Amino acid sequence: MDIVISKETLHRALQTVQGVVESRSSAMPILQNVLLSTEGKKQVRLLATNLDIGLRGVFEAQVTKGGSVTLNARKLFDIVRELPDADIRLVEEDGQWVRMTCEKSSFRFPGLPPSDFPTVPKAGDSEPQKVPSAVLGDMIRKTMFAISQDETRYTYNGVFMESEGDKLRIVATDGHRLALIERPNTGAEFKNGVIIHKKALGEIVKLFTEEETDVEIFLHENHVIFRSGDIELSARMIDGDFPKYRQVIPGDNNNHITVDRDQLLHALRRVSLLSNEARMVKFVFTSGQLVLTTNGSDAGEAEEVLASDYSGEELIIGFNARYCLDVLGILDEQNIRFELKDSLSPGILKPEDAEGYTYVIMPMRV
Amino acid sequence: MIPELSSASGGPAPRVIAHVDMDAFFVAVERRDDPSLSGKAVIVGGSTGNRGVVAAASYEARALGVHSAMPMVQARRLCPGAVYIPASHSKYSAASKQVMALLRTFSPALEAVSVDEAYLDLTGTERLHGPPYAAAAKIRKIVEAELGFSASVGVASNRLMAKVASELSKPAGILHILSGREAIILAPLRTGALPGVGKVTAARLRGMGIRTVGDIARLPLSVLEANFKNGGIDLYRKARGEHSAELVLDSRPKSVGKETTFGEDQGDPDRLEAVISRLTGEAAARLRQKGMEAKGVTLKIRFEDFETNTLAAQLDPPASIDRPIFEAVKGLLAHALDQKSKGRKVRLLGVYLGGLVPPDRQPRLIEEDSRQREIRLAETVDSLRDRYGAGALVSGRAMEEMNGPKNREPKNHESKNQGTKKREMPF
Lengths: 366, 427
Description:
Number of strands of chain B: 13
Low-confidence stretches of chain B: 1-10, 416-427
Number of helices of chain B: 16
CATH architecture of the largest domain in chain B: 2-Layer Sandwich
Mean pLDDT of chain A: 92
Largest interface: A-B, 26 and 17 residues
Shape of chain B: globular
Number of strands of chain A: 25
Distance between the termini of chain A: 66 Å
CATH topology of the largest domain in chain B: Dna Ligase, domain 1
Structural class of chain B: alpha+beta
Largest sheet of chain B: 5 strands, mixed
Strand order of the largest sheet of chain B: 5-6-1-7-8
Oligomer: heterodimer
Helix content of chain B: 40-55%
Mean pLDDT of chain B: 83
Strand content of chain A: 35-45%
């Protein structure tokens, strides 16, 4: 292999795959590498994978001699970042060594055999489902925080995406709280739904931000593949049944209370600093106000009073502060609405003036 | 003559230590919840069937010869008319918290030694609670009035004698052993009445012709040391009623764990996995017994050349049931064998649970029922093992280990976070 690629392009290419490269030394050292292969005379393809997700991108380059090499992705990225804005030449030498030159700089790296690089599923010829890029990114961003980090509950380790009539829906839960977002569907079909692996979520949010373009989504055996332009992200689908989320969304929470999101966010942050290990904050709703209190920790006690439009009987409910802060931090709307039943039943939090977002939290025992 | 430290003539005023021991506590809790049980013979056991042993028996049942740890079959023969109730430890632990909270109002210096007994340091509370005997009576009365439970209270100048006193006063009694009278009270008691003298020690003492505590007190220290090594001095002091009055005030453990050294170094991954399965089960059971959950788990692994590694994993959410803990430990073991062993065999394995927190007050939104089932299952397994011994119920994986060679030195570990007695994890 002998190619010339601009520093700017190689830097962007390596940056794109960086999040997918295995960062820790694992049983497979090659997972820390990126595979570079020439495609025709004008392009080089970069491929990285950690076996759960894979990312391939095609970038411009001048190919003098075709071939492929694998190199440590982190090392290469760190060096390229520091190179001057000029053309970079990569030449394969004997025994998988690669020489990189750029103006007066020269580096030699040991590579690993490209044939050892794991295969990563490719988008097939099937008809893709299309979702506007920014919509997908936003839906994932507003739900992914609610997934579980408990690896033993693997069906909770991803977000669930499904279509239903004219709605596209994404749901995430860790079993204690649940985030659900719905957006108008432009014709995509995921009838039985797919669970997208958690490792893919951060990449999706990073990669798919553009308003005008669509992400093409392919379901390929046990992978879901997202393609936009020259970038393709494949993620292992989580095999298993997503929890029956519909039955935990309450329908009869008749106490509706509107609160300023930003004020609540800041008050809750302050109060939660003195919450106990379980991070419980007591929400006391009385006529016209919401009082947040914490006690029971050795650190002290805290109380914050906020205005609300509540007019019913006193309602006391304990929530894990983190669960509330997570959602208050990602919503954009000015006002949020609590929909509550009593102190033991699941509560709902949603934006006041926007449809299509529901967050359910199981209260703690006060 | 060396002057007696706690003699009545001069010297510092004696400490006032109370030992509060609840009478047939499990039965009392059951009676609180079902008053129709009062006055009846009640036996709390691990299981309602004929299997298992007695966890607690009411005094009516004890009168017929039933006692704790007796096989259930035997209890049913002695006391066929009794009401048999399966133990529900979460209920007893909740009631225990109420008791401890109430006792703390007498003195903040409280050491809870188990669900149903605690030491209280009442030194200097005379103006508040009256002299020791009156204070003990007040404790008994208030516990009875507020919570409906009967307690026995022993008061003395140190922990040992306070415990002996409560034992002698049972049930529903009060005994104050005056400072200076310790040895006289102890002398006629059987050696087994001394806290810390178990069946093995008592049998060895019997072999030496020693039957009472007074007999021990007459032996020279050298004889006790020759027979009991380091335990000799302990017996020598205890037989004279000498003991510490210091309470372990914060008894919340920082970690619990189990480790085991193999009789023969092990290399078989399946066998090693079987061992961590058992160790995890035992460590988790201790955790549940303490009513805590762990935020982290550590695997300790010592190879044949004595190089020791520790690997840690987070438990999120905190756990006290075996399954998620075992999953995490299994991952650590696989990593250790894969990355660290370099072909060496394993000499020792240990599983430690740390970052202990009270159980989550956060119910689940989804599958709360199955979580409750898992917790109940763990509690049931615990109570069966309590009654029958650890081998009564063994997971298939842990059973694989039983075919293997015996291990050298099973070791319990519990480190407390208390001032100077602080012990770190033994790594």
